[in-house]
Write a structure and sequence with these properties.
eight-stranded mixed beta sheet; two-stranded antiparallel sheet; alpha/beta; 3 helices; 15% helix; 158 residues; globular
Length: 158
C-alpha cells in the first residue's frame, strides 16, 4: 500500500501555504493505511531531505523519503516560478504502479509532453481561478475552510 506524493515547490505554488496545509491534511488522513513517499518538483523532480527546519534536495537519488505527519511544514519555495512535470512522469514514474498524488497550482509548462500515468490524482490549488484539465488522471480542487479544516471539491474526472 504505497502512495507517491509530488508537491509543486515552484515560487507560485508555495506562496499559498494554506493550500499545501489542506492538501497534506488529506495525505495525513491516509498515513495509517499507506506508506507515503514524498517528491518535490519545480524545474526538476527531486527527493527531499530534511535539514533543520526545511527540506533540501537530496544528493542521493535512489533513497526515497517517507512522509511523516507534519512534514509539510518543512516544504519551502524554490526560486523558480516555472514547473516542469516531464521529469516526474517521463523519467521517475515509469515502472511504478502506485497512486501518484500531485499537489500543484496547475501552472505547468509541459503538459503536452507527459507520458500518461493513469493512476494520477491532481490536487489543484484553491486559489486557481482558471479551470485545469489534465491530459490524464482525476482532478480535485482543494478547498480550505477556516477554522473547520478542509474538504475537497471534485472538479473534473477524466
Amino acid at each position: 500500500n504505497l502512495i507517491t506524493v509530488a508537491v509543486d515547490v515552484s515560487g507560485s505554488m508555495v506562496m499559498k501555504p494554506g493550500d499545501i496545509e489542506a492538501a497534506f491534511g488529506i495525505i495525513e488522513d491516509m498515513l495509517s493505511r499507506f506508506r507515503v513517499f514524498l517528491l518535490c518538483i519545480d524545474e526538476t523532480v527531486f527527493i527531499p531531505e530534511k535539514q533543520g527546519d526545511s527540506f533540501t534536495r537530496s544528493a542521493v537519488h535512489t533513497k526515497s523519503y517517507e512522509y511523516k505527519k507534519g512534514d509539510w511544514r518543512y516544504i519551502k519555495t524554490g526560486s523558480s516560478g516555472t514547473t516542469y512535470f516531464e521529469p516526474l512522469f517521463n523519467t521517475y514514474m515509469p515502472g511504478h504502479r502506485e497512486l501518484l498524488v500531485v499537489i500543484t497550482d496547475g501552472y505547468i509548462y509541459d503538459l503536452d509532453k507527459l507520458e500518461r500515468y493513469h493512476n494520477t490524482l491532481w490536487l489543484i490549488s484553491e486559489s486557481r481561478d482558471e479551470p485545469f484539465t489534465p491530459p490524464f488522471g482525476r482532478t480535485v480542487k482543494i478547498e480550505s475552510k477556516k477554522p473547520a479544516g478542509f474538504h475537497l471539491q471534485q472538479a473534473h474526472l477524466k
